[in-house]
Write a structure and sequence with these properties.
This protein has about 475 residues and is α+β, with helices and mostly antiparallel strands. About 20% of the residues lie in helices and about 15% in strands. The strands form 3 sheets. A 6-stranded antiparallel beta sheet has the order 3-4-14-13-9-10. Strands 5, 6, 7, 8, 11 and 12 form a 6-stranded antiparallel beta sheet that branches. Strands 1-2 form a two-stranded antiparallel sheet. Strand 9 and strand 10 form a beta hairpin. The longest helix has 20 residues. It is elongated. The chain starts with 6 loop residues before the first helix and ends in a 10-residue tail after the last strand. The N terminus and C terminus are likely disordered.
Length: about 475
């Protein structure tokens, strides 16, 4: 007889996480396992001397070879779990009716409902039918049983749950209730108001993390970038008709000021308001340059109104400095033979001719510290933009902005080309007009969405340090002498 081991020695490791335990522990220090719930370890029985013959009971129906004549299935052999409780006799799921036992024990109603919720409706005979076309998908949570590979011995291996059946019973399709979003990772858990899955904890992509829109000949792409936790840029593209019936195409791009409160709301409000004002004023016959000036003022008013919302700033981000919401804006309108741009801040517009025979050009001047230094003749452009204060903006839309001075300019291009309307998240990686023209695909006028995607990809490949937003507005010039034959 070997001496009986002390109880604590038998519990030298946590039953939940296998971490070592200290003497007198009531809970596991690693996982919090309640050690008082651990059943009393069974007392040691007599050991068998080495080399002694052991008389094992024969299996029922064993032949001369010692192999059982009738295999035992799970549930047919009584047993107990680690707590000394009898194991429930549960049926086993088989692949086909030919493999199912002739008689399956009945399950309690509660167990039936739980199984149906995870696996779908019960098939005739008590076997659980797998969802049609179900394919295992990796994900956390309890896993249903699937047939194990091998000899068909009745053993089963766990697989991930079928997301279509998660949380739904009776075999109905897993369609989330109205207003409820399913996790993009596990497709089983609901997404809470913070944007995380309640089941697996996976962070969900925000709708604004990546946006694309193509409308006729104008297109825009916006991306969160690789360093920011959210996208604070916004854009609007649209088209309307002038009083004479000719088209007018609009592109607006806004960049939220990250040091201010609610920059994402500011850029969204500004882009939407400027776009709506242009859509309303251009068909009435307002000159495009005047319409652009008024659209910027309307955008500024929309951003200012965000600061007047009581308590909204603190509720949105309690850790951010309580500066008034702010953003920059740049826009372009192609109306007939006229190209109009307007801006406040350091978002830019570039002109790139289609045939690249003419020089590209930058159509805007930044409201920034660097631009002021260059304009005053105090520094060269290279020196100014190498300074750490270069990108400090001196003009923006917001309640705490200085006297608002919308900038507008009109052009009459003599050849077709593309207007690149973008935030500094792009032009930081292609600052000079020649660099922008080199990155812009040659077929951007015919494929503006693809061209915008290429430009955003260029910024991301360069490091993606900021949100990246670009709109491409092709500008067509009627051929000289073209008309009816």
């Amino acid at each position: 007889m070997t001496p009986q081991m002390p109880q604590q020695a038998a519990r030298s490791k946590c039953p939940g996480c296998e971490e070592p335990l200290e003497s007198g522990d009531l809970f596991c220090g690693a996982c919090g396992y309640d050690l008082s719930a651990v059943p009393e370890p069974p007392r040691d029985g007599p050991t068998v001397a080495t080399g002694a013959h052991v008389h094992w009971p024969e299996a029922p129906g064993a032949d001369d070879s010692g192999r059982p004549g009738t295999p035992q299935r799970p549930g047919e052999v009584p047993g107990t779990d680690s707590g000394g409780r009898e194991l429930p006799a549960t049926p086993v799921r088989f692949d086909g009716p030919e493999a199912a036992p002739a008689v399956a024990p009945a399950r309690p109603a509660a167990q039936e409902a739980g199984t149906a919720a995870r696996f779908g409706p019960a098939a005739p005979g008590g076997a659980v039918a797998a969802a049609p076309g179900a394919s295992p998908a990796a994900g956390p949570g309890p896993a249903p049983l699937s047939p194990g590979s091998g000899s068909g011995s009745g053993d089963f291996e766990p697989t991930a749950p079928d997301p279509r059946a998660a949380g739904h019973s009776g075999g109905h399709s897993a369609v989330p209730p109205p207003g409820v979003k399913l996790c993009v990772a596990c497709r089983a858990g609901h997404v809470d108001h913070d944007g995380y899955c309640e089941n697996c904890g996976h962070a969900q992509p925000r709708e604004r993390d990546h946006m694309e829109q193509e409308l006729g000949s104008v297109a825009a792409v916006s991306d969160r970038g690789l360093r920011h936790h959210r996208n604070e840029d916004s854009f609007a593209v649209s088209s309307t008709a002038l009083p004479d019936g000719s088209p007018a195409v609009i592109a607006i791009v806004c960049d939220g000021v990250s040091s201010a409160t609610r920059p994402d709301d500011a850029s969204s409000a500004a882009a939407s308001s400027a776009n709506e004002h242009l859509l309303a004023s251009l068909p009435r016959g307002t000159h495009p340059q005047q319409a652009m000036h008024e659209a910027i003022l309307a955008a500024a008013s929309a951003v200012n109104s965000l600061a007047a919302e009581p308590g909204a700033a603190m509720e949105h981000d309690p850790h951010r400095h309580q500066n008034a919401p702010a953003c920059t804006l740049v826009g372009a309108v192609a109306a007939g033979e006229l190209l109009v741009v307007g801006w406040v801040g350091d978002s830019r517009a570039y002109w790139v001719p289609d045939d690249r025979s003419g020089p590209p050009a930058r159509l805007t001047e930044d409201d920034s510290w660097a631009a002021q230094m260059v304009s005053a003749g105090l520094m060269s452009e290279a020196e100014a933009y190498a300074d750490e204060r270069a990108h400090a903006i001196t003009g923006w839309l917001g309640a705490d902005a200085y006297e608002l001075e919308p900038h507008t300019a009109s052009f009459k291009p003599d050849r077709p080309g593309v207007v690149v309307v973008c935030t500094d998240g792009l032009w930081n990686y292609a600052e000079a007009p020649e660099e922008m023209a080199q990155v812009l695909p040659p077929d951007a006028a015919g494929r503006p969405l693809h061209g915008a995607q290429v430009l955003v990809g260029h910024a991301l490949d360069g490091g993606g340090h900021d949100n990246v937003t670009v709109a491409l507005l092709p500008f067509a010039v009627p051929r000289q002498g073209a008309g009816s034959a």
